[in-house]
Amino acid sequence: MHTSCSHCEHVFEREPGFFLGSVYINYGLTALIICVAYPILLFREAITSRALLISATVFMMVFPVWFFRYARALWCGFDEWVDPVKTDTSKPVLSAAKSSKENQEQSS
Question: Is the whole model's pTM more than 0.70, yes or no?
């Protein structure tokens, strides 16, 4: 994942462990889908209980891997909505990588 946006230079990861919240989103949505779909399909007898168990297990292993990047994007959006990054409009926003590089160049 990029450290910052290539268009607006917004830094994505604010601190170490920042994206732990995206794990909760990913797990929560996976559990919600299974908890709703499994009983409905089981009691309607749409497919056999063995096939339903196998398909639910496969879904629980594949969906979180596929949804990983979207969960991170949702977490970034949620974090920006709850705690927006304060920026100074008089100067352009620099990414963490660029600003640390510039600080190193200025100190040497």
Answer: no
